[in-house]
Amino acid sequence: MKFSSMLCPLSAAILVALSGSSQAADVEIAPPAGGNVVIRDSTGATARFIVADDGTVTISGLPSTVQEDAPVCFDTVSGQLGSCPSLLGATGPTGPAGPIGPTGATGATGAASIVPGPTGATGATGATGATGAASTVPGPTGATGPIGATGATGATGAQGATGITGALGPTGVTGAVGPTGATGAPSTVPGPTGATGAAGPTGATGAASTVPGPAGATGATGATGPTGPTGAASSVPGPTGPAGAVGPVGPTGATGATGASGTGLVVRDGNNVTLGSIIDMNASSDPDVTVITSNGYYVTINLDGSLGTGANIYFANTTCSGAPYAGANIAGSPKYAKLLVYSALLNQTYVLSGSTSNGQVFPVSQASLGITVGSIDSNGTCVVQGSTAQMFPLTVTPQTSMGLPAPGATRIAVPLQFP
């Protein structure tokens, strides 16, 4: 029932009881027949605690409270609430929450009585019931909940493109050989001639014998005399002697030190990746720079990051699915095989194919191929083309194969950087 703001005997009794009267007594609330004892929140809109006439107790806030870790038991005789025996089985893991049932219709609020009923006599306190015997058998353990499925492993990120290798600098020049020292002048003063020894006496001439005598024994070889001093060098050179035999090839000398790296001008993209060595720059109203990449490809890059060297792309059939060709800018003029050809319409990069041994590609005529070609227009439609005098065969080639970084939001990251 809902209490009135009027002061009545029942409310006065409650106030006295709550104020700590020296006379101990119970506070009793007796609703009219068929009514309930209802305690509401401060707004009066929500019934927090309801005791029905049949003894049913309802606490509306229990379903939304935080789950606690101990159950509540009641005495089966007196209905007194209390903690449960400690011999209960261990609490099993919380099962999955069941679906929320539909909200029941709100019962009609009973009419509030403005006259409180008479206070009933205090009943005698009943004897305390005997404590039930503790169970010796623990309750069953709750079933273990299923293990959640393992989450899928995240995909491995793509490996970043390998940076291009910088161009090899030219070999340093070999230092000049120093001049040969001057040959010393020959002496014009001859050295002294050695003294002539004294002549021995002439022996007497013997009488001529008509019978030759026996041959005398050969005398012993006299000792070699000392070498005379070297004569002065002649101021007139003698005749040139015959050429000597060619001597054996000497061992290969040690390899000389590598020359200093070249200092050619290079260009880098906005991510500081080297694009190649600059071989040409166009400073017109549509500026661009032409480089040779580390893989030797000839590439023209506009300063806004888009690729140059564009061309109309033809296909060797009328459905634009055949082999690709580029239209020649100058009929019959060969091109460098590693020339990058870019189609902005198709957003595709190509290089020339069918090069000669010296790295050149010559154009072919449509008539010699005996084909009808098509090309894709700006609306994405394949259009049959008329006679195309000269064309270059192409091969689809990604930028990374040419020594360039993979295309990003723009073809080349900007701003371009020049050291």
Structural class: mainly beta
Q: What is the averaged pLDDT score?
A: 76
Distance between the termini: 91 Å
Helix count equals 2
Taking all Cα atoms into account, the compactness measure Rg is 60 Å
Report the strand count.
18
Q: Are there runs of 5+ residues with pLDDT below 50, and where?
A: 1-14, 258-262
Strand order of the largest sheet: 10-11-18-14-13
User: What does the largest sheet look like?
Assistant: 5 strands, antiparallel
Strand fraction equals 15-25%
Shape: elongated
One letter per element, helices H and strands E, the order comes to HEEEEEEEEEEEEEEEHEEE
Assembly form of the protein = single chain
Which percent bin holds the helix content? under 10%
Keywords: Signal
Signal peptide: 1-24
GO molecular function, one term: extracellular matrix structural constituent conferring tensile strength
Biased composition (Low complexity): 100-150, 175-264
Protein model, in words:
A hairpin with a 5-residue loop joins strand 2 (47-51) and strand 3. The strands form six sheets. A five-stranded antiparallel β-sheet has the order 10-11-18-14-13, with no helix packed on it. Strands 6-7-8-9 form a four-stranded antiparallel β-sheet, with no helix packed on it. Strands 1-2-3 form a three-stranded antiparallel β-sheet, with no helix packed on it. The protein is built from two helices and 18 strands. It has helices spanning 9-18, 366-369, and strands at 37-40, 47-51, 57-59, 72-74, 81-83, 266-268, 274-282, 288-292, 298-302, 313-315, 324-327, 335-336, 340-343, 348-352, 360-361, 374-376, 382-384, 391-396.
